Amino acid sequence: MKAVRLHAYHQQPTIDEVAEPAVTGPMDVVVRVGGAGVCRTDLHIILGQWDEAMSPTLPYTIGHENAGWVHEVGSAVTNVAVGDTVILHPTPTCGLCRACRAGQDMHCVASTFPGLDGTDGGMAEYLLTSARACIKLDPSTQPKDVAALADAGITAYHAVRKAVPLLHPGTTAVVIGAGGLGHIGVQCLAALTATNIVVVDRNPDALKLAEALGANQTVVADGRHVDTVTELTDGAGADVVFDFVAEEGAESDGWAMTRPGGSYYVIGYGGELHVPTLDVISTERNVVGNIVGTYNELAELMVLAQAGKVTLHTKTYPLDAAQEALHDLDAGEVRGRAILVP
């Protein structure tokens, strides 16, 4: 089969011919990939930014946002069958550790992260995963239409869902970055809260999309955007800021936009947040980290998606055009999400 393989950092992955995966364990599931999301994390992987955290052995197949059809199942699999349409939680988990028992799937001590940790991911024709990662979908669902919800979607939903108790009517939430994750975050905020949604982005097209998806106000990131957000909130700042960028200065802006007693939710990454500890204690602002989400949250997100309350805006590419998709994402030429379709 064809697969998008990373052989060395700072070099583009290549399309290789590799053996198809096969079931070897009782809970294994092989999925025929119908859509694989192209994420900014894939760009970070290529640059070696995950090497220290994951220490993957190269080469391996990238791609951690996947949906498709069940192709083969292990002897103990009962929740899905061959032919079922599924979306895959990005981290197959053990189900036995304390984190799993508490429903904190993303902190499982024995999880794998296909496409990130050296385990082969889904930018391929077939992917080996586990029964615990599979969420069965309506057969009419097209995997290419929902694949990016497996990571971008669940990550945005996870952050918004945690903040729901803080976002009662009369509050303001700021979304920094209305791209692949941010445009999902805007929809989740509109679906789950009655907060006033303000979106900040430097791209006018991204702001137009945000308006269409539920943003109440939009702000161009033009160097005055922190002041503009302050003005829109009567000088106080936002109750919650969701930073889907968190690099190139956005992390400083996000902190500055957060009101005293408010919370700055960090979802994007790549930058560094430098905050005097006096500012933290004197204003009682919170910094909240967010990574992926739980199996249940992905299942909840799919309910919203199948009800039409959260939709992905996508640009599709054939698997052979993976390098083009990565280039377009890096160049800011993708509105919403790029999806590889084998």
Automatic annotation (TrEMBL):
Pfam families: ADH_N (PF08240), ADH_zinc_N (PF00107). Gene3D superfamilies: Medium-chain alcohol dehydrogenases, catalytic domain, NAD(P)-binding Rossmann-like Domain. InterPro entries: ADH-like_C, ADH-like_N, ADH_Zn_CS, ER, GroES-like_sf, NAD(P)-bd_dom_sf, Zn_alcohol_dh. Keywords: Metal-binding, Oxidoreductase, Zinc. GO terms for molecular function: oxidoreductase activity; zinc ion binding. Residues 3-340 form the Enoyl reductase (ER) domain. The keyword Aminoacyl-tRNA synthetase does not apply. Its cofactor is Zn(2+). Belongs to the zinc-containing alcohol dehydrogenase family. This is NAD+-dependent secondary alcohol dehydrogenase Adh1. It comes from Jatrophihabitans endophyticus.
